[in-house]
Amino acid sequence: MGKMGGKKHLTRYVAPRFWPIAVKERHWAVKPSPGPHPINRCFPLLVVVRDMLKYAKTAQEARKIIAEGKVKVDGRVRRNYKFPIGLMDVVEIVETGECFRVLPYPTRFMILHPIPREESSFKLCRIEKKTMVKGGNIQLNLHDSRNIIVELEDPFNPVEDVYKSFDVVKIAVPNQEILDHLRLEKGNIAIVIGGRNVGRVGRIVEVKQVFKRASSIVSLVDKDENVFHTSLNYIFVIGRDKPAISLPEGAWK
Question: b/e string for 22-44 if b means 16 or more Cβ within 10 A?
Fold first, then answer.
């Protein structure tokens, strides 16, 4: 990304291009604090409140709104205006009851998509990897830095361990209870989270492994029956027969 202006500072010139801020309007931008999403895949909460939702005209006004606890992220009040907001996060405005989910979107990379209030009680998280922890239990490491422990009755016969990397779990927020498990398999619906096909939605028709699994090529068919291909790293499963979350109009049939 080039020189950003120091560990605690970020110039607008090198800020991620998908942030909806005017590059020449000011010199400095808000640098997200370390958290669940990397800087090149998130928005700072202040940018969400001021520039995306337009609840404030200035950074000072946005900081006041956030400090007063009027914004929730994944069911928890966040008072840090630098808190990073990223893929699949649920943003709720307490006073208005409005809810939004961060989704990948063509050309704009990521957007805030309005969702019904009943959808704000859960989010989808991709399993990046699994590790074994003390007691022989399994820990799922998710894309938003969450860790969920799957307890096994018998580590030598782990019938509870049905999860694989790149699968997706539907979890309740904020308590992280697993509600559903969406496998990375043929026939399921996925959204592309990176690359030139970012934001496209399709049904998985093939997963072709060339070398390592992470470098596999996934073939999908979209709502118009057009076949397209992308890397497995960019695949995020969102449903079986139909998407488990609301999508922008026209993204899926």
Answer: eeeeeeebbbbeebbbebebbbb
**What are 122-168's pLDDT values in tens digits?**
999 999 999 999 888 999 999 999 999 999 888 888 888 899 999 99
Q: Amino acid letter at 182?
A: L
Q: Which helix (H) or strand (E) holds 109?
A: strand 109-114
Query: In the predicted model, what is the mean pLDDT of residues 103-117?
Result: 95
Tokens representing residue 193 in the block? 């989270």
Nearest to 65 by CA among 49, 84, 47: 49
Q: Are 136 and 144 in contact (CB under 8 A)?
A: no
pLDDT of residue 239: 97
CA distances (Å), origin 200, targets 116, 166, 217: 22, 18, 15
Over residues 53-102, the pLDDT tens digits come to 999 999 999 999 999 999 999 999 999 999 999 999 999 999 999 999 99
As given in the structure block, the two tokens for residue 225 are 């029956």
Residue owning tokens 């808190």: 83
Q: Is 208 left (phi over 0), alpha (psi -120 to 50) or beta?
A: beta
Question: Whole-model pTM?
Answer: 0.93
| Greatest pairwise CA separation for the chain in angstroms | 61
Q: What is the pLDDT of residue 5?
A: 47
User: What backbone torsions phi and psi does residue 120 show, to the nearest 5 degrees?
Assistant: -75, -10
How wide is the angle at C-alpha 139 spanned by C-alphas 124 and 181, nearest 5°?
Answer: 35
pLDDT digits (tens, 9 = 90+) for 1-47: 444 445 778 999 999 999 999 888 888 999 999 999 999 999 999 99
Measured at the CA of 140, the angle between CA 109 and CA 32, to 5 degrees, comes to: 40
Residue with tokens 């904020």: 174
